[in-house]
Amino acid sequence: MELLIITGMSGAGKSLCVKYFEDIGYFCVDNLPPSLIPKFAEVTLQGKSPIEKIALIIDIRGGAMFLDLIPALLTLDEMDIKYKILFLDASDAVLVKRFKESRRMHPLSQDGRLIEGIKQEREILKPMKEKADYIIDTSSLSPRQLKEAIVEHFVEGKLFKGIIINIVSFGFKYGIPIDGDLVFDVRFIPNPYYIPELKPMTGMEPDVIEYVMGFTESRTFLNKLVDMVNFLLPLYVKEGKSQLVIGIGCTGGKHRSVTIANKLYDRLKRKGVSAVIEHRDIDRDDKGV
Q1: CB distance 86 to 5 below 8 Å
Q2: C-alpha dihedral sign at 30, 82, 128, 92
Q3: Which residue range forms the structural domain that includes residue 91?
Q4: pLDDT class for 112, splitting at 50, 70, 90?
Q5: Residue 165 forms beta bridges with which residues?
Q6: Would you place residue 18 in the very low, low, confident or very high pLDDT band (cuts 50, 70, 90)?
């Protein structure tokens, strides 16, 4: 039996996780009282048709019962029942934004400010985050990207390196991604915008890709970028970083940045690195350069 405990900050995406884990074959139980986990695992193992993959979503909604989670996990250890822990996190600013947009009340802010409830929850969950086998920061992940990250982590045959790479192509004229950890400017590459037949296209199309990658400097830059990212990944993992946002920017975010971002994504995926990609400005108006 493969037992996964899913926990984390309220508003970090646990409800979406239930749907995604069901999609990849997990039997999901939401908000099970932690004290019942050992008995649930025991009954499941003894069933006539054992369930192979189980995900239990346990969070602060259980109130004081949540404090039973650590003792329950210690009981599983004593029973020699193997389990993994997935912790979903997000920045305070993102959590505040999500709660305000959904108009939901934070479980710990019934009589106080939202930010105080978030801080209190973060402190309560600190031991679980330290104990977690996987940490996914959903601050900059769309629902689709969260699902891709889950697939990368938990579908058999996928390789997880301990960190998720989020590659974002963008246009400098629309601003640098505020959550970018590493930002690279590819405006040194000749611009397809000035080639009439390429101007209306994007970096997703073969003619633009051929043009952009037809320059020695483009290929050399890509090779050096891949080498640097591969060098940095284990160092970031060692320091406890679970997500790295790499921004690739050109002027408008339609041609050069899209091409290079896709090439970087493909190269990392071939090496088994967990990566998702977003072309932030590809559909923006392209007037001007």
Answers
A1: yes
A2: negative
A3: 2-154
A4: low
A5: 244, 275
A6: confident
The tokens for 21 are 């884990």
Q: Are residues 128 and 190 in the same domain?
A: no
Residue with tokens 């090779």: 223
Residue type, 17: C
**Prediction pTM value:** 0.56
238/260 Cα distance (integer angstroms): 27
Spatial separation of the C-alpha atoms in residues 285 and 283, rounded to whole Å:
7
Q: H/E element holding 183?
A: strand 182-185
**139 and 200 assigned to the same domain:** no
Backbone φ and ψ of 275, nearest 5°: -145, 145
List the single range of 66-80, 106-120, 132-146 with lowest mean pLDDT: 106-120
User: What whole-number distance in Å separates Cα of residue 214 and Cα of residue 255?
Assistant: 13
What is the reported pLDDT for 64? 74
The answer, yes or no, to whether residue 229 has pLDDT greater than 80, is: yes
DSSP structural state of residue 202: -
Average pLDDT over residues 163-172: 90
Q: Could you tell me if 22 and 130 lie in one domain?
A: yes
Going by the DSSP 8-state scheme, the letter that residue 191 receives in this structure is P
Among 1-5, 82-86, 150-154, the range of highest mean pLDDT: 82-86
What 8-state DSSP symbol labels residue 66?
G
Contact 253, 284 (CB under 8 A): yes
Nearest to 11 by CA among 88, 116, 108, 125: 88
Helix, strand, or coil here: 189?
A: coil
